[in-house]
Amino acid sequence: MADKKIPQRMCVVCRKMYDKSDLIRLVCSDGKVCVDGSGKKSGRGAYICKNGCIDRAERTHCVEKTFRITVNPGFYDELKKEFYDIER
Fold first, then answer.
1. Which domains are assigned to the chain?
2. pTM for the full predicted model
């Protein structure tokens, strides 16, 4: 029996490939960016790894550059909260 392929995605911050399940998916829909815990929301998606790239994304504005929009000021706090909730 053939081994099942595990989908790979690239982190928009560090540009490294990871298993899709090891990343946080962000979705831009109607000009707003939100965390997609289910992986099924519609809109343009991007992934951030859980290896400290959230802080780096905040400093370098990678999310804004990826989606070509300005995120609200509390977005990174929400992202950090969601990240720590996922880890538990």
1. 8-87 (3.30.1230.10)
2. 0.82
